[in-house]
Amino acid sequence: MFRRLFLDHPASVGESYAEHFGVASRFGATLVAGGIGCMIHAVLPFAFKTRGSDTVMALHRDLVAKRNAHRAAHLEMTTVEYVI
To answer: Environment class of residue 38 by beta-carbon count within 10 Å: exposed (0-12), middle (13-18) or buried (19+)?
Structure first.
């Protein structure tokens, strides 16, 4: 039960629990900061004009890069080379 709740998902993305905690916390804090910028922009339209879209694009870029790195590492681990 503990493994399923706390370890399976981090392992599926190539991270330990502690690594996943750090990455998820950073993503969450970045989203909160972007959201605050959007809220300020709602009141003051001249401020933080691109904060929301910049935040989403940066997080997407990080997520895709990490996903691709994990897939490449997994593929490399499962590829067998024979030397004769």
So the answer is: middle
Is position 61 within any domain? yes
Please report which residue ranges of 1-84 form alpha helices under DSSP H.
Answer: 2, 8-12, 17-43, 51-78
Give a yes or no: residue 83 inside a domain.
no
Residue 19 belongs to a domain = yes
Expressed as residue numbers, the domain containing 28 is 2-78
- Parts of the chain with a pLDDT under 70: 77, 79-84
Number of domains in the chain: 1
User: pLDDT by residue (tens digit) across 54-69?
Assistant: 999 999 999 888 888 7
Residue 38 to residue 36: CA distance in whole angstroms:
5
Question: What pTM was estimated for this model as a whole?
Answer: 0.74
Cα separation, 24 vs 35, in Å, equals 16
